[in-house]
Amino acid sequence: MRIQATLAVATVCLATACGTTTGQQPVSPGSGTSVSQQTAQGTTSPTPAPSPTDTAPPKFSAKVSKVTREQVKHSWRPGCPVPLDGLRMITMTYWGFDGEPHTGRLVVNKDATEAITTVFGRLYDWRWPIYKMEPVDAYKGDDFDSIDANNTSAFNCRAATGSSHWSQHAYGRAVDINPRENPYVSADGSVAHKNARKFAKRPVDAPGVINPGDRVVKAFARVGWGWGGDWSGVKDYQHFSAGGN
Length: 245
Ligand SMILES: [Zn+2]
Description:
11% of the residues lie in helices and 16% in strands. It contains three helices and nine strands; from the N terminus they run E-E-E-E-H-H-E-E-H-E-E-E. The protein has helices at residues 113-125, 143-148, 215-222, and strands at 10-12, 62-66, 87-95, 101-109, 174-176, 184-185, 226-227, 235-236, 239-241. Strand 3 (87-95) and strand 4 form a beta hairpin. Residues 1-17 form the signal peptide.
């Protein structure tokens, strides 16, 4: 059956004042990082907010919308364990490695939107940096390329690494965060991505790294999501999922 495309758009606002999302941040010219500059788009403020905090970054905002076939043309196909109608696009702010707010997008299961926006709202409030956040379709659904680009992403209709079973990513109930700083480490200690090798051990004191017991792990635990860094044998430091697997 075809999906009835009534584009129900729900706006999730975790910060008290969503309306104060002013959108644009001045771009500091001296920023030497290589993060591609994205426009921090947001909802236009309905009421002007004249305040001395005009230069403060926008509050965290997250918008949840339905996913079109076109948006997931590489990562979803008929036969995937979740129908297209069971997926949602979260468009939300995140804090970049360049110390600036950005707007990113994550595709997740519709039953995962609350958990994800809750945790990413916390990360944003902590100014905890995320390198990049775009759906894996930006890499034609290629997980390796997405990871190589240090991209944070969630839904991808694929098997689990080294397995013939669906990954939790195929259900939209898993997210990989800063995969360069948080690599997948095989049981023999090897890391497939060259750019991630220096992050194979824990703990590492560097921006965007997830260490055992730290607040990122706790924030996910509070919404019932487990961390791949807690697995025995294989360690998947970038990976959080609803079932913990
Ligand atoms: Zn993962």
